[in-house]
Design a protein that fits this description.
The protein is about 35% helix and about 20% strand. By secondary structure, it is of the alpha/beta class. It has a seven-stranded mixed beta sheet, sandwiched between helices.
């Protein structure tokens, strides 16, 4: 089993390559097979920037984030800036939006997009979700899109979210969760980990972490099933295991969850 540091290095390598290629497939790619794109279509949304959209999300967290003029909003795992620029369209020239990503290539690409757009109230920072480069109680809204599942220590990640949020402030996160037991081959595969699925927690466990940290008003605003093609599954598990997986009732879902400090 990979250590937390090894997992982070795998994710950094995968996402660094995606940033350099200027395109992506949701939550990472294998060398030969593209993952099903989990992301909703952003192209008609206000603030959409095609150069910032690498197809790496699994939802639209801004849909339920209740962002208001003047808010300070933080996007965790901001990539090339897709959700950040959508948030900025809501804020206009008021407030501030900060994107944080641990992958230098992604951060560089986001800043390149920012330079072209010229926004003064947008900032991209290099940093890890488990150790956010932000002051305590400084943020009104935290969003994230298909990233927390890649973080090895999810308890620490949500602890950091709790720390940086102001009292009565909230988060809105789109993420991948599992209902039922995944075949071990999926969880053991490093490429699959960088593809969102093997790093996903059971939905109940995911929500329990949030609850135990003291968040209130926790609610799943949206849930949709994610289907993995047999061609992809065959890289990690046998044909018989695929059949068993299909018949097991195990589900992989994209959820958008909110919670208040």
């Amino acid at each position: 089993m990979n250590t937390p540091d090894e997992i982070k290095n795998i994710v950094k390598e995968k996402y660094g390559k995606i940033a350099d290629q200027k395109s992506g497939c949701c939550c990472g790619c294998s060398d030969t097979i593209e993952f099903t794109n989990f992301q909703d279509d952003y192209s008609a949304m206000k603030g959409y920037e095609a150069d910032a959209d690498l197809g790496l999300g699994c939802g639209v967290p801004t849909e339920f984030a209740d962002i208001k003029k003047g808010d300070t909003v933080v996007d965790l795992g901001s990539g090339a800036g897709n959700d950040v620029f959508v948030v900025r369209s809501i804020l206009g020239d008021t407030g501030k939006v900060i994107g944080i990503d641990m992958t230098k290539e992604m951060n560089d690409k986001a800043n390149e997009n920012l330079r072209k757009l010229g926004y003064k109230n947008v900032e991209f920072k290099l940093g890890e979700i488990e150790d956010l480069p932000l002051e305590s109680e400084s943020v009104d809204v935290v969003i994230s899109n298909c990233v927390l599942n890649l973080v090895p220590d999810k308890n620490k990640a949500f602890s950091e979210i709790y720390r940086v949020l102001k009292n009565d402030a909230h988060f809105c996160i789109s993420d991948v969760v599992v209902n039922g037991k995944l075949p071990e081959g999926l969880r053991a595969a490093a490429e699959m980990y960088a593809g969102c699925v093997s790093g996903a927690l059971q939905q109940d466990e995911y929500l329990e972490i949030i609850k135990e940290l003291g968040f209130k008003n926790i609610d799943i605003k949206k849930s949709k099933p994610i289907n993995l093609e047999d061609e992809l599954l065959a890289k990690y598990i046998t044909k018989d295991e695929i059949t068993e997986f299909r018949n097991s009732g195990t589900g992989i879902f994209s959820i958008t969850v909110v919670g208040t400090k």
